[in-house]
Design a protein that fits this description.
Layout (H helix, E strand, L loop, with lengths): L9 H15 L11 E8 L5 H19 L4 E9 L3 E4 L6 H9 L10 H12 L6 E6 L6 H13 L4 E5 L4 H13 L3 E4 L5 H28 L2 H7 L4
Parallel strand pairs: 1-2, 1-4, 4-5, 5-6
Antiparallel strand pairs: 2-3
Helix pairs in contact: 1-7, 2-3, 2-7, 4-5, 5-6, 7-8
């Protein structure tokens, strides 16, 4: 028998509402005919292997959502193992990104969020990045250093949307501050959050591709659980 979809609890509905309200309050994305750009940054240390596998299917849906409103270029940034932090080329279709992600296996090691932020700052010197998504479950670095880098990114007008898995208190504090300093938003995931993560990541991707207007249009056309989430944008 097929498992029924997990319904949103009152608490999670409130969390989603707060998250999407922050997205709605972002300044419009200036469109000059160019495609939106989104950096998808992920912790690829060993504890996140199940989540990495799940992200393969989710990212394809992100592209599908944005293709109808002008498309989106995505860059994958990940860290793992001992002192390894890599960034892909910019890709414009889900197949290319899926191929990149399937070549990556999670490996044990400490977090390298600082290096990921440094890469984002480097990208911003040459191109406009409309939004950054970061997904992780831990933080083992100096929070003041991370916040300084996040503040510099925020000054460039690029919001970072942080998604936390697990209950690490240090990670929560850092992720909240990074989101705050860049005018992004923070969201905490739990074991039953796969459907919420899909909806929320798609919402951020749509924002990166077309701004608030695109988010409003998406809310009008989506039904079911998607409509339940996106009706907060009206």
């Amino acid at each position: 028998m097929a498992k029924a979809p997990t319904s949103l609890t009152p608490k999670s509905e409130g969390d989603v509402s707060d998250f999407l309200e922050k997205v709605r309050g972002l300044p419009p994305v200036a469109k000059d005919g160019n495609r939106g750009k989104l950096i998808f940054a992920m912790d690829a240390t060993m504890s996140r292997q199940p989540s990495w596998d799940r992200a393969l299917s989710i990212q394809a849906e992100m592209f599908a959502e944005t293709a109808r409103i002008g498309g989106l270029d995505v860059q994958l940034v990940y860290f793992r193992g001992f002192n390894e932090c890599r960034a892909s080329k910019w890709v414009s279709n889900p197949t290319a990104l899926a191929k990149l992600m399937t070549t990556v296996d999670c490996r044990g090691g400490n977090t390298q969020i600082g290096r990921a932020l440094s890469h984002i700052k480097k990208e911003l010197r040459t191109t406009k990045v409309n939004a950054v998504i970061y997904v992780g479950d831990a933080m083992e670095e100096n929070i003041d250093v991370l916040c300084r880098a996040a503040g510099e990114i925020g000054m460039q007008g690029t919001p970072i949307f942080t998604f936390q898995e697990g209950n690490d208190a240090n990670a929560e504090r850092a992720f909240r501050e990074i989101a705050k300093l860049t005018r992004g938003a923070y969201f905490k995931l739990n074991e039953s959050s796969a459907h919420m993560l899909r909806e929320l990541l798609s919402a951020v991707a749509v924002y990166a591709a077309g701004g608030r207007t695109a988010l409003e249009n998406r809310a009008k056309t989506k039904g079911g659980s998607s409509n339940l989430l996106l009706q907060q944008l009206k």
